[in-house]
Amino acid sequence: MSAPHVLIRIGGEGGEGIISTGDLLSRAASRQGLCIMTYRTYPAEIKGGLAQFQMKLASDPIRSIGLRFQHLMAFNQEALDAFHDGMLKGGTIYYDPAECPDLSKVSGEIERVPIPLTDLAKEKGGSIRGKNMVALGFLSRLASVDLETVAGLVREKFKRKGEKVLDSNLASLNAGYDLGDQTIDGRGVKLTPKSQRGQSIVISGNEATMLGALAAGCKYMAGYPITPASSILEFATRHLPRFGGTVVQAEDEISAMASCIGASFVGKKAMTATSGPGLMLKGELITLASTQELPVVIIDVQRGGPSTGLPTKQEQSDLKFAIYGTAGEAPKIVVAPATVEDCFYLTAKAFSLAEEYQMPVIVLSDTNLAVRTETVPEFDVSRVDVAERLRPTPEQMKDYKRYEDTPTGVSPIIDPGTPGGLHIAPGLEHDEYGTPCYTGVNHTKMNAKRFRKLETLSKRAEEWMADWAPVEGAELCIIGWGSTKGAIQEACQMAAERGIRVSHFHPRIVAPLPEAQIREALSKVKKVIVVEENFTGQFSHFLKAKFKFDPVEVLRSMGVPITPDEVLEEIVKVHETLHPAKPQGASYAHR
Amino acid sequence: MSAPHVLIRIGGEGGEGIISTGDLLSRAASRQGLCIMTYRTYPAEIKGGLAQFQMKLASDPIRSIGLRFQHLMAFNQEALDAFHDGMLKGGTIYYDPAECPDLSKVSGEIERVPIPLTDLAKEKGGSIRGKNMVALGFLSRLASVDLETVAGLVREKFKRKGEKVLDSNLASLNAGYDLGDQTIDGRGVKLTPKSQRGQSIVISGNEATMLGALAAGCKYMAGYPITPASSILEFATRHLPRFGGTVVQAEDEISAMASCIGASFVGKKAMTATSGPGLMLKGELITLASTQELPVVIIDVQRGGPSTGLPTKQEQSDLKFAIYGTAGEAPKIVVAPATVEDCFYLTAKAFSLAEEYQMPVIVLSDTNLAVRTETVPEFDVSRVDVAERLRPTPEQMKDYKRYEDTPTGVSPIIDPGTPGGLHIAPGLEHDEYGTPCYTGVNHTKMNAKRFRKLETLSKRAEEWMADWAPVEGAELCIIGWGSTKGAIQEACQMAAERGIRVSHFHPRIVAPLPEAQIREALSKVKKVIVVEENFTGQFSHFLKAKFKFDPVEVLRSMGVPITPDEVLEEIVKVHETLHPAKPQGASYAHR
Amino acid sequence: MPTAEKLKPNDYKTGREPIWCPGCGDFGALNAFYQALSELEVEPHMLALFSGIGCSSRLPYFVNGYCHHGVHGRALPAAMGAKLSNPELTVVVTGGDGDGFSIGTGHVPHIVRRNPDITYIMLDNEIYGLTKGQIAPTSPVGMTTSSTPLGSLEDPLNPVALLIACNASFVARGFSGDPKGLKDLFVKAISHPGFAFVDVLSPCPTFNMDMTYQSLRPKVSPLPEDHDSSDRVAAFARALEPVVYTGVFYHRRESIPYEKRHASLRAKQVEYGGQPDLAALIRKFR
Amino acid sequence: MPTAEKLKPNDYKTGREPIWCPGCGDFGALNAFYQALSELEVEPHMLALFSGIGCSSRLPYFVNGYCHHGVHGRALPAAMGAKLSNPELTVVVTGGDGDGFSIGTGHVPHIVRRNPDITYIMLDNEIYGLTKGQIAPTSPVGMTTSSTPLGSLEDPLNPVALLIACNASFVARGFSGDPKGLKDLFVKAISHPGFAFVDVLSPCPTFNMDMTYQSLRPKVSPLPEDHDSSDRVAAFARALEPVVYTGVFYHRRESIPYEKRHASLRAKQVEYGGQPDLAALIRKFR
Ligand SMILES: Cc1ncc(C[n+]2csc(CCOP(=O)(O)OP(=O)(O)O)c2C)c(N)n1
Ligand SMILES: Cc1ncc(C[n+]2csc(CCOP(=O)(O)OP(=O)(O)O)c2C)c(N)n1
Ligand code: SF4
Ligand code: SF4
Ligand SMILES: [Mg+2]
Ligand SMILES: [Mg+2]
Question: Whole-prediction pTM value?
Fold first, then answer.
């Protein structure tokens, strides 16, 4: 079935170093040339809750991580109780006997191996704080990750804490590794690195997003903290000023958005980042930016709604707001990264679109992308084409019209500080000069001008707009958007292994829709399955309004990413309706 | 063609009494048993701009007023210049020669009659402020409105200003009437009152809306001024306290919405009123109310967008925000009054729906309904059925669950102040008791519970949900929503007179859609025309997503109400495509 | 209205255990609040408790009453709607410095000048706790946090000075390390007929090491004996001093609560417009 | 930077005629503004003028410069984004009492404490002009308006006291009936390197008969000669007096504008993190 890989989950109390253990191990594996993907959940509460870190290591690029795992490292009883039934068949639980007194709930088929994390840390490292280092050493051995690489990362991490701390940690690390040597035997995993060392990076979606913004030349970032978008703001505060930009933690989302508009008005590339509740607060100002035709990028890292909802969980439920969330009619562009790599390139693209079409662009990321890390080819800054605003020709300067009604809909813009281009950016309906004008004829003309920009864009039908994986002879096509892509890809592959051919269409731009491409995808198949992580089928609704078809909707709102298995199951079901195994009569009786 | 009526427009400088002249005349006509409808535009600027008041008087109920008129009373040159080409053929302009020196632009076919408003007011009333009274007297005579009825209203209006002012005004009024006696002859209009005196009222949509709220038992109103919704707040401040309620002019729309939620939480029926820009600001809190399952009514009086847009003009462009404008998935109900009468009964209904389904209900009114006045049968308070919240049974009280997952989705509610029902209303996802709970199973269950309320509602398929005027043998059906109804009705009638049969479906509830009723309407015809006053076809989009059909979209975003003629024209066009007059070949060549 | 049996602090506990970190200052404030409620004999069903979003805004989950956990920054107007709609209720708002003075700032001057009989308990830890440690409006300039890696560039807001400028009728500051003093302030604040504000210094040991119980103790001091809490300018001057005073800065005795003004307005409207009769009102449009 | 030829007040006029009612106070403020710009020799292309929504917020349409007419209440943060992004520009905000102190209140304390070099000209008519006469946050209690038929129930907000509490570095009040004095205040405010606030009493003869040129003249008085504008408490005390003082209430001389702090931060980050090199930053994730 799928390529060789190992799936490890680490669970324990938040603050015990669960996350850093996972981080170090996966980064070391990546340095060795393996591909990794990780997935973590924080406790919804602030401290002391259950934290988990899951990682997948493989020779080949990884598309999805799933929710199940072969190896569980349980730091405490709570983790053991919560996670043991997520284990794949034939899996092994490694547990700290000092913290896990009760194994009675664990199914008999699961192997259990005691790993004295606490004791070894105390004994070898002199402090129980080294528990996670013991685990790290042990897991390195388990996954055949080079001890020296891991030790190097540990050294980097602790170099500022002084020799003593470092030595204690290294001692625990080695103790764990040695214990592994003695314990692991057949359970060890040997994966062959395929990529060359040093060509990949391990990075999260939020980090990639902000790097993409830097690559595009973003010079102003204002945000208000909100899970799971805060780390974009935090990353910006650490780096954007160095790149000549400005970062403001605003007093609220409205202020953040307003200040981006101000920055954009004076000619700077500006962005904000938020999640659902904050996005709603920005609605009025997003509409203003659209009306004033000012570029601005809004990152929306979706989380579970409605309202405060499931603030640390996964959901794709802000799409309809992103597309339709304006009173009055104001065009905007919506793109949705599907992978961590997309977070970089597509965010950079979002800036180009914003500048080129002079309108707000919403980037719909999500919790899953935001916090997972992944091995990706090192981002290539030279692949980012940086667009700038359209400037007036000398001819146009003779009678400068800020809102000139052009064939593309895009008008030339002049930045404050430049002599000769004085103008006003109005929120009122206006004529080509920006002077308020309320006639019906002018309103219709300016509406047409503003929306024409979307037509100009959607006519371009460029490759980046969608991933289209047509399969010869497929009767089914899956359409998904955003971070479900990997799971869908794996499911399609699994289906192919069972002889069910399924095409896969995954747009990166969700509004305006890449119409021609979708029409082509639809034309080739009998049935379409739309996969989304929400309750009401938001993208499906949008597609239906445009294309008048009747998809099977696979909707999940479980707070966790959909898995390839879940998608596969639905593929099989739909396939069966097209090729009923039972005699027709019986099949009808079923309905 | 259409029933006998007279169409008069008065134009002049804002502040010259244009509006009150129209108001008094139309009210007097109504008191005499005529039906009236009026339409006014204010200058977009504050003072000194052009104001106009148009009225239609008829024997039979009036559906739409259109934009053209037979009689124009021009107070000044600006009004003359701006309005003369809106005249119907054979019309007459009455103008004040003191203020209108230049008649050269007026087409030769239009009769022009000088009416010395200024001179007569000075001469007879002793003050040029009485100009509008001269006009009122004259127009009363023109429309055969009883002078005594008019004088009675004038007396009411000026009784507090003292005898002198009153006498001066009455003198001017009489002078105008007398002049009419001398001038009018053939141009006079005689309409026969059909309804009995005293059974009708003349009222605007905004007033009707607030009266509907009073009838439903609204006890809390908070708003922030915004054109064209402010008069709802103002009307509330004048009356709601007397009815035991509270009115707050909040510091912004967000506060208004939050305080409504607070009022609703303690058991009171609460409402707010706003327009597009304010509606967007309320989005986050509307979502909260939906999540906490608290009833609240939001009146959105639509105006021209986007952003500040065309703040005093007509547009139906907030629909998509009303339906889809939440990040995360939060059910709400959207209704749209089509007439001033609807403003009363449907607003009252909105309260019942809110209380019954424990969710926000958005009432989509618009500028046209808000400011036009209309003769309507006196509102019958006894026809309003006042719903109250579901209360727990004694059985349920034994283990009270505020968010009990019931077959209808509706849970019993207890108000603060009542012993025994302590609970928390959370914005976090929660279990049936209101305790935060983030499991996928619970989230899906509670999503289903909350959305089940919409299913429960849409299954009811009650008569109030839509106006459905099926025409035997019709190949066409027009679907509209909101205030376009009258124009569509007249257009259908005009089409019928030309032998084109057209059905008309006009839902009052636009979300959830009255599905069964729409399906029935769609099943009977070959082609559907959707009429909307916006640029992008918002309702059509929503319909297409649900019903997968291909309507002809008639979209207008001209800042003024669509007219029967415009609708008729489209009907004729579509009819011709179904029955091409030309030979087939030629018709194809057209495409 | 004393009940048959006096309610004890524990009677205000719900079954839910606070989810705060060990050592969080909010525990102290919660305990003081339980005690104040018990001392005032507030019946749980007459208590309406509102909050926004933040660690501190979770407090209502742990208090027996009718509780409302709304969205970030909107607890004050929600509470006002409730108080106006049922003046019998004891209405209290809790929340953090971010909730109240960042996203919620816009409501403060307005709710304050309307003066509804609401008690606002601000749990001020000079940090954003729930979102893991970004600067708050009350964070001192130069403070390094996850969103200010090289130090905050902003001068902090002074909640007490601000509330005095907004003419709040009761303005106090307390410290969660002084539960007895805090309880007393809560009792006074809840008893005050009008808007009462209590700024509670409540350390966040997880994300703010610049403001701990230890670092606060030497800085905190009760207002001088001779402080005249009826003098608004004097109160303002005290609020600007570097000493972190606790106690009642300002207390205006002539305080007509907003809900009382609305009650008078209702009476006045009946006087001018007659008894409520909807049919009669409709007939006016004839 | 004086230009070749000195700009005259008329050079700042656009072709657009103000749409205000005859007698509107905003005319006086606009003229004083033209004069101040001319006196300061602000080149139109270096002027960035922001406003919200309201009669007063229409002012930018009549001023030669790069102008931004945004949505209601958000001019301050928009202006801040502009100033931070191009510190060379002279950034001014105009708007009404409703725009700035009702829907926009939430931004005031925060923009103020950050102290960007922005001048905020508030045209205060104690009413909502554009929406035809509802109460504003500065309307006196008891005032009858279209939204308070029997008189307002709310005590007004005191803009000068509020701004002093927020620690604005320049706080003044002017009167559109005193154009010369107003021009001087504008000149001082624009010259002040930091956030400068000028509360301009600007009558609305159309909707507010309670505050007219006539009624104001006897109440208005320049601040006493001996007023010490560097004393924040004294300034606060003056703001609370019943006399309507004009002049500079508070002026803090040590004022580091926010944009300067950001410039220092940039330098510091380069010092610690090295020259900007995106590829190198990406490589750190290996
Ligand atoms: C509209 C919105 N924006 C942002 C957030 C994210 N958020 C939750 S709590 C919080 C601030 C918490 O700080 P504070 O109010 O001081 O409470 P504390 O946790 O420190 O007690 C933020 C920004 C949110 N929930 N909603
Ligand atoms: C979000 C939003 N809410 C409400 C309005 C309506 N509105 C426009 S101007 C205004 C207030 C005007 O008062 P002020 O700011 O004092 O300006 P003035 O007209 O008195 O100069 C209001 C409420 C709006 N445009 N946008
Ligand atoms: S993060 Fe801080 S404020 Fe939040 S619970 Fe922990 S200690 Fe308290
Ligand atoms: S309404 Fe008032 S504020 Fe507006 S322009 Fe007229 S006088 Fe000026
Ligand atoms: Mg805090
Ligand atoms: Mg004003």
Answer: 0.96
